[in-house]
Please model this.
Amino acid sequence: MFIQLDEQETTIQFSREGGKAVVWTSDSTVMTKLDKLVQKSKQWKCVEEQCLHGDDRVIAKRYEVNKRLISFRSDIVAREITDEEREAASERFKKYHEEKRAKSSF
Model:
């Protein structure tokens, strides 16, 4: 990606009376999340990809979605997990990565 991390941004636009929201992002992490939503749901659509002149690497995308799927939270909820839950999650991730490596070695 050509855009510095501190310059990557995301904007969300929608009007009060309209039903559609437009999300434009040059943030690679947000782009990945929104691309997954596009794959999962017919509600999300990637409508434009922007590349640098003469290069086919995508540096920004524009998405459209029903604005009712845009939400705002009132607080950040910290999830507290026990040592046992943390250990179980660690074991699940280890097993997942081992299985992934085994599949990719074929």
Q: What stands out?
A: The chain has two helices and four strands.
